[in-house]
């Protein structure tokens, strides 16, 4: 069997297009332009690239982008004062503090200072609790993107066996909650799981989010399963730098029914879902209906 390739780049372009159309309607009908504030502390080159890309995508979707770049030695008090000002600013519907933060700053404290209604990353402890109890929340972007692709491929996920390999707060745990919300039977596995290969072989939906290059080989995959690869690992091969996922793509693609490639699978969905979350936050803030198909 040769798997259907789930084209995340095309899917993300579709999501961004739907966000842009909805934003245009919000402007025309209600005079509202959603706004996203991104805060970057320090000069981490990878973070600078992400932040630029987020700002550009926000503007392309017709929304306002507010970038706040702070020095690496910014004090916690200064950062918290900025977050407080953004929380109070009605033009700002979404706030994202780019992680990782410099070591002298307490990331949990900073994230939990964001108004949960503006927490477009879905990292605030209130949003974590709301998601865990099946209530309306802001949902972390990467798992939301995975859920959208799975719903599109399967229609209903009800009753399917889902295995999430990885237990991070950003991907593994919220992914498991979302799959449970769609009535999957969910297992969270990780690097210490006994008989990980056997556990993976039970999965109708296998989500790999462990951060280990090509850790999951094809013979861990149930024939016909859907494989969602969240990993983005930079490796050296044949003297060149290459991006690979957490699954061994060639062997998994022979067995799976559908698979996301790396790059071009889950990756592009993360920013698309950040835009979707910003739009959702703007609709909620103004008491307007949420955009259909862009939320959990
Ligand atoms: N750094 C890398 N990915 C992310 C993300 O999704 N959100 C934030 N805030 N920081 C990140």
TrEMBL record:
Its EC number is 1.5.1.5, 3.5.4.9. The keyword Amino-acid biosynthesis applies. Residues 6-121 form the Tetrahydrofolate dehydrogenase/cyclohydrolase catalytic domain. GO terms for molecular function: methenyltetrahydrofolate cyclohydrolase activity; methylenetetrahydrofolate dehydrogenase (NADP+) activity. Pathway: One-carbon metabolism; tetrahydrofolate interconversion. InterPro entries: Aminoacid_DH-like_N_sf, NAD(P)-bd_dom_sf, THF_DH/CycHdrlase, THF_DH/CycHdrlase_cat_dom, THF_DH/CycHdrlase_CS, THF_DH/CycHdrlase_NAD-bd_dom. CDD domains: NAD_bind_m-THF_DH_Cyclohyd (cd01080). NADP(+) binds at residues 166-168, 232. Residues 140-284 form the Tetrahydrofolate dehydrogenase/cyclohydrolase NAD(P)-binding domain. It comes from the Bacteria. It catalyses: (6R)-5,10-methylene-5,6,7,8-tetrahydrofolate + NADP(+) = (6R)-5,10-methenyltetrahydrofolate + NADPH; (6R)-5,10-methenyltetrahydrofolate + H2O = (6R)-10-formyltetrahydrofolate + H(+). Catalyzes the oxidation of 5,10-methylenetetrahydrofolate to 5,10-methenyltetrahydrofolate and then the hydrolysis of 5,10-methenyltetrahydrofolate to 10-formyltetrahydrofolate. Homodimer. Belongs to the tetrahydrofolate dehydrogenase/cyclohydrolase family. This is Bifunctional protein FolD. It comes from Defluviimonas salinarum. The gene is folD.
């Amino acid at each position: 069997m040769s798997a259907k390739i789930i084209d995340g780049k095309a899917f993300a372009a579709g999501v961004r297009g739907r966000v842009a159309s909805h934003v245009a309607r919000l402007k025309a009908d209600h005079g509202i332009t959603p706004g996203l504030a991104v805060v970057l502390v320090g000069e981490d080159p990878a973070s600078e690239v992400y932040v630029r890309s987020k700002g550009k995508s926000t503007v392309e979707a017709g929304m306002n982008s507010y970038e706040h770049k702070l020095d690496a030695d910014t004090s916690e008090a200064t950062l918290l004062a900025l977050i407080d000002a953004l929380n109070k600013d009605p033009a700002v519907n979404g706030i994202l503090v780019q992680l990782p933060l410099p070591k002298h700053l307490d990331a949990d404290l900073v994230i939990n200072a964001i108004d949960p209604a503006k927490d477009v990353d879905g990292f605030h402890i209130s949003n974590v609790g709301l998601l865990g109890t099946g209530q309306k929340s802001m949902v972390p972007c990467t798992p939301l993107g995975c859920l959208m692709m799975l719903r599109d491929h399967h229609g209903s996920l009800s009753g399917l066996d889902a295995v999430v390999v990885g237990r991070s707060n950003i991907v593994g745990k919220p992914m498991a909650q979302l799959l449970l919300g769609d009535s999957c039977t969910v297992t969270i596995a990780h690097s210490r799981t006994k008989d990980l290969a056997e556990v993976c072989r039970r999965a109708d939906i296998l989500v790999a989010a462990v951060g280990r290059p090509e850790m999951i080989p094809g013979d861990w995959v149930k024939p016909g399963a859907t494989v969602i690869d969240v990993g983005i690992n930079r490796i050296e091969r044949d003297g060149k730098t290459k991006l690979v996922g957490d699954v061994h793509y060639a062997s998994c693609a022979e067995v799976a029914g559908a698979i996301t490639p790396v790059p071009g699978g889950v990756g592009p969905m993360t920013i698309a879902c950040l835009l979707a979350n910003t739009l959702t936050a703007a609709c909620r803030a103004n008491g307007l209906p949420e955009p259909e198909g862009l939320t959990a």
